[in-house]
Design a protein that fits this description.
Strand content: 5-15%
Shape: globular
Structural class: alpha/beta
Strand order of the largest sheet: 3-4-2-1-5-6
CATH architecture of the largest domain: 3-Layer(aba) Sandwich
Low-confidence stretches: none
Bound molecules: 3-methylbut-3-enyl trihydrogen diphosphate, magnesium ion
Largest sheet: 6 strands, parallel
Radius of gyration: 19 Å
CATH superfamily of the largest domain: Decaprenyl diphosphate synthase-like
Number of helices: 9
CATH topology of the largest domain: Undecaprenyl pyrophosphate synthetase
Number of domains: 2
Helix content: 40-55%
Order of helices and strands: HEHHEHHEHEHHEEH
Distance between the termini: 34 Å
CATH class of the largest domain: Alpha Beta
Length: 261
């Protein structure tokens, strides 16, 4: 669902885009972000790793605000991977605390900014308190239309695909679907991201050139953009740079585009 904007808001958005040299008709609809490098950023400042996570929340807030200003339809943030449980317990405890705190402290702002929060991933392992606050924010914000903020929490793409396959197998076994009905659309509908558009742009911070089990199905044709900056350093200028480079890419989806001559 595209953001629903008043005429005045549309004008404000267009002049903002113009002012920053961004073209409204070449903006990504959906941006997925791998927020990496919190620990490295903290260590470079001589701080414990958890301080990097804490500072990362500020970058999340700024990224959300800028996405709204630009009129982006959806952003999906990689907050915790299913492999991150390998981290030391105190760091995991802190991440759970941060998640719970975020859901409480940002709830009013989320409502004021008309953000719809959705969560993808497995609930298992997330503390009861964090789940409770998360569910409350999701429920409260479900009618909002300005920006979809999808949070990938305890998310792993391979596990997501396995879950989708199991759900299709169960439907087949019950006789609800036939073999011929199993196609790409059906599988996409059984993923946690059912009904969401695929990401147009995937941003990763901290210089890593890998996807780390993120949205493997959904990013088949996403454009990648990687910065050396760590997540706590991610800012409006870098965000604009990513979007600007995206706008200049030739997306071919396996075919040819007009510029190929
Ligand atoms: C990303 O930063 C946040 C999470 C994975 C929770 P990291 O914690 O991975 O930071 P680095 O990559 O170790 O610097
Ligand atoms: C990916 O970052 C997960 C999140 C950003 C939440 P990691 O730091 O876990 O990825 P690897 O281990 O470097 O591949
Ligand atoms: Mg990392």
């Amino acid at each position: 669902m595209s953001p629903i904007l008043s005429e005045k808001d549309k004008q404000v958005r267009l002049s903002y885009l113009e002012e920053h040299g961004l073209s409204a008709d070449r903006l990504p609809r959906h941006i997925a972000l791998i927020m990496d490098g919190n620990g490295r950023w903290a260590q470079r400042q001589g701080l414990p790793r958890i301080e990097g996570h804490r500072r990362g929340v500020q970058a999340v807030r700024d990224t959300i605000e800028e996405s709204i200003r630009l009129g982006i339809e959806q952003i999906t943030l990689y907050c915790l991977s299913s492999e991150n449980w390998k981290r030391p317990q105190p760091e995991l405890d802190f991440l759970m605390h941060l998640l719970e705190q975020y859901m409480i402290e940002q709830r009013q702002l989320i409502m004021d900014q008309e953000i719809k929060v959705q969560v993808i991933g497995k609930r298992q392992g997330i503390t009861g308190q964090a789940l409770k606050e998360m569910d409350r924010t999701v429920e409260m914000s479900k009618e909002n239309t300005k920006l979809t903020l999808c949070l990938a929490i305890n998310y792993g793409s391979r596990a997501e695909i396995v879950d989708a396959v199991k759900s299709i197998a169960a439907s087949y076994k019950n006789g609800n679907i036939s073999l011929d009905q199993i196609d790409e659309n059906l599988l996409a509908d059984r993923l946690y991201t059912a009904k969401m558009p695929d990401p147009d742009l995937l941003i990763r911070t901290a210089g890593e050139m890998r996807v780390s089990n993120y949205l493997l199905w959904q990013i088949s044709y996403s454009e990648f953009w990687v910065t050396e900056a760590c997540w706590p350093e991610f800012n409006k200028e870098l965000y604009h740079q990513a979007i600007d480079e995206y706008a200049q890419r030739h997306r071919r989806f396996g075919g040819l585009d007009q510029r190929d001559g």
